Amino acid sequence: MELGLPLFPGIKFPTPRNTVLARSSPNNLPQFSSNASSSTSISVKPPTKTVPGKPEADVVVIGSGIGGLCCAGLLARYNQDVLVLESHDLPGGAGHSFEIKGYKFDSGPSLFSGFQSRGPQANPLAQVLDALGESIPCAKYDSWMVYIPEAEFLSRIGPTEFLKDLEKYASQNAVQEWKKLLEAILPLSAAAMALPPLSIRGDLGVISTAAARYAPSLLKSFVEMGPQGAFGAPKLLRPFSEIMDSLELRDPFIRNWVDLLAFLLAGVKSNGILSAEMVYMFAEWYKPGCTLEYPLNGSGAIIDALVRGIQKFGGRISLGSHVEKIIVENGKATGVKLKGGQFIRAKMAVVSNASMWDTLNLLPKDQLPKSYIDRVKTTPQCESFMHLHLGFDAEDVREDLGIHHIVVNEWERGVDADQNVVLISVPSVLSPNLAPPGKHVLHAYTPGTEPFELWEGLDRRSAEYKKLKAERSEVMWKAVERALGSGFNRDKCEVKLVGTPLTHQRFLRRNRGTYGPAIQAGQGTFPGHSTPIPQLYCCGDSTFPGIGVPAVAASGAIVANSLVSVSQHSQLLDAIGI
């Protein structure tokens, strides 16, 4: 799940520096940390007036989330002059990490796989990193703790381990239905993974870089699938629930479990997620020898690697540079205006990594078709988040503590109900350097299910806000106490930070603190990357393929590829061996 950026009262970040990670200066990376104590309040200073260096670039990227950084990195790799403008002091968006009292916290995603994969079927983020000549050291593991109404158990990925869990905690019928599901969908994975994400572009050049280039592998995948798989391939663009219905899978445990997996992956249940996304995930998690991976220096290591890649190829990032407007001249996007008044010219394109709603607010409405404005305004939104970040003594908790814990209170309410599902990550279990010696760092959150309406209009300094904060965070505290065992005492935590939808709205600059568009497969599609304004493009979780780290990485890559020639694109694919 994607969250991100400086979220919490208790951390005072340094004054925005308009830091430019200068062209050809790969050793000048910023330090992603803060030494503030947890008793101070957050302070975000207004940006200074100008971006150092030349006030222009071939491509200006608004926002440094993973999608924006992937786009900028590939553009730099394509030898384009690219400038990323980030409103906050630190790059990273959802992947950003922050430090307090020696505890290094992830502010967003923590469940990863595929960093070490290479080749045509690799994770899109892995393909971008490969193109940039970067890698991320990871710890590998294969399980997470599950707390559901039926039982508490350690769930392992892989082709056979989960069958043992089903036999023990569900029923023999559930075992048979799970086998039936895997037998039906794993053959489809060849088609779902036949086109490398890095080969896609948003114009007719895709015929050369994807369709023609990979026609033999596509044909081979259909042959390997056999008649059943080949006839089922069109279902990849339909809701995953339709595959389950066609197989007559009715076991409540299986239906609930698949809903949970879909929700963790994309913020919607099985009736709202594309089958292609689920099939890809099943192929990653339920094949022989599969593992999950966690970056040894936290999710911030992903951002470090992307920033290094951008710098390596001459790109720039300006921090503390808040974009106030996208400038449209003669019907085309020609640059941006910063909060301090400076104009930054974009000679080729402007790329927005902001959400569709926030991008709309940057544009002059008289330059946009009413149909575009109406579509954005009527696109349903996922809800927001509650967060709990803790730093505590490792001696007080169970010795066999794992990194990930998933708590589902009631199946009947649905995994998308508020206060029902809590996700917990204790990354210091695998990466001890994220906490002081003998300590643990923990992030718990409700995954895109917290209603913004409960918080709208509240004064963050009011007693009413503090009271609601305490009430709505209690479900996370109880989940944490359940996961960590009876030795854990919340009063002994050295760091306690609670974030709300208003925190998301304020520090993520996300409209209503939303997780992203709630677009249901079969009922709508994620928008493409071009806009009604020529030379303005979008990437990130408001665009195809959607929500999630692999998806936003792919979106950034698609935009970058679309801005260069087919020849340049093909040369890159040759260079990284796909």
Automatic annotation (TrEMBL):
It comes from the Eukaryota. InterPro entries: Amino_oxidase (IPR002937), CrtISO-like (IPR045892), FAD/NAD-bd_sf (IPR036188). Transmembrane segments: none annotated. Residues 23-53 are annotated as: Disordered. It holds the Pfam family Amino_oxidase. Residues 66-561 form the Amine oxidase domain. GO terms for molecular function: oxidoreductase activity. Residues 23-32 have a biased composition (Polar residues). Residues 33-53 have a biased composition (Low complexity). This is Amine oxidase domain-containing protein.
